[in-house]
Amino acid sequence: MATDALLQIEGLDLRYGSSHVLHGVPLQVDQKPLGILGRNGMGKTSLCQAIMGMQPVSNGTIRFAGEDITTAPPEKRARMGIGYVPQGRRVFRSLTVAEHLRIVAQKGGAWTIERVYETFPRLKERRQNLGDRLSGGEQQMLAIGRALLLNPKLIVLDEPTEGLAPAIVSDVIDLIRMISDEGIAVLLVEQNMHAALAAVQDVAIMVGGQVVETCRAETLKGDADLQKRHLGVEPGQKG
Description:
- The protein has 239 residues and is α/β, with parallel strands linked by helices.
- Helix content is 35%, strand content 26%.
- It is built from ten helices and ten strands.
- It has a six-stranded mixed beta sheet, with helices on both faces.
- The longest helix has 16 residues, at 166-181.
- The radius of gyration is 17 Å and the shape is globular.
């Protein structure tokens, strides 16, 4: 595995009690956006939680910017520059949009609260609304904006298009491309194959807690047999 990748994962195992959910996972993320694809229950969210330190791993190593963070707490990983957009958004119901953003805003970075509002004008309009008064799309904008305010070196997005209308999905894809173009490394975890392939350059496919295939996004896009074998996507089906 290359030694100059921003995020390097080797031989990662993760267990929930007697359940072995990640099996020797290798992964590396550099400046090319990487997509993790797989059907439900294949270990994608568990991988995100392991990267963020939310679940202890039983074997393997995680290195970020050359430092071993395998046992580091989540707050250290965030301070080092790993931003996280969790599945389900995890927006606080009792905080306004503005309060969510003020909590994480830092001085001196390219991403400021004003820039988040410029990027997501709807959030500016709704800045005094509580988290439970936002639509699913607005909550996703808030979750992404919150992560960007950390001015991360790497952003991990877990199913960011889940439950969103097609027009909002398109906006999320455009934003991921913009983030990547600005030099932020992207790890995009998705079940929506077409959304992921529109946003990333490389993909890794997970089956049964293992990475079973890595390839260019264009390769997967043109290989119906590969799509069907690992992702259950039939020819012509929207994945």
